[in-house]
């Protein structure tokens, strides 16, 4: 094989210059890559800060006022699949409708599901939003004192139920001081220990029950604003609790 000519061979100086050129090019690439990473990180930081500022400063949706809810209540009751408010009558025999007992009474003995009157514990149950089922015998005593109850099925969920819990838990306005919000879930009591089929919310006051297919805040407040004693604001009291307004 013929030897390459001198023009095809790189001189020592040329090889050195080519190596230097490659090093410079590599350094430039590394510098560009490092600069791009810094720019990307800076953009991420700026974007995250912008999102945080937006979340803190964006206008928040106005919370529904009690007046807004009352205005929406009739339509909301229909859309939530609520039936009529039913007078379920007294416990039988009637002489025991307000009886104080220390032994638990089976839920199946009460004339309605959920119960709206009948033998009950001597100690009423306080108003509030509860995550677990309260003792029925104490809740019934609260009904006797003019409480209204928003029962919900334990498998109910969604934004409307969240709104109910938040609304009645507010301390800035008096909407929950005569209301109990809790899940109705007493599996050891058979069929009477769960809400009627198709109902995920039940609104209860002394001798009165309204069931709804779905939880709805406006429907719930439309009920409790008039069926608790004392009622909300200028609402007329529609109930008949024997000791309406008594403490619980």
Account of the protein in words:
This protein has 248 residues and is an alpha/beta fold. It folds into 2 domains: 8-60; 66-227, no CATH class. It has 5 helices and 6 strands, in the order H-H-E-E-H-E-H-E-E-E-H. The protein has helices at 12-57, 66-79, 136-144, 159-168, 217-227; strands at residues 86-87, 128-129, 148-152, 179-183, 201-205, 208-212. It has a 6-stranded mixed β-sheet. Helix 2 crosses helix 5 (217-227). The longest helix has 46 residues, at 12-57. The protein is elongated, with a radius of gyration of 35 Å. The relative contact order is 0.15.
Describe the secondary-structure layout.
Layout: H1 12-57, H2 66-79, E1 86-87, E2 128-129, H3 136-144, E3 148-152, H4 159-168, E4 179-183, E5 201-205, E6 208-212, H5 217-227
Parallel strand pairs: 2-4, 3-4
Antiparallel strand pairs: 1-6, 3-5, 5-6
Helix pairs in contact: 2-5
Supply the key terms.
single chain, 248 residues, alpha/beta, 2 domains, six-stranded mixed β-sheet, 5 helices, 10% strand, elongated
Shape: elongated
Order of helices and strands: HHEEHEHEEEH
Spatial gap, N to C terminus: 111 Å
The overall number of domains is 2
Can you summarize this structure?
With about 250 residues, the protein is α/β, with parallel strands linked by helices.
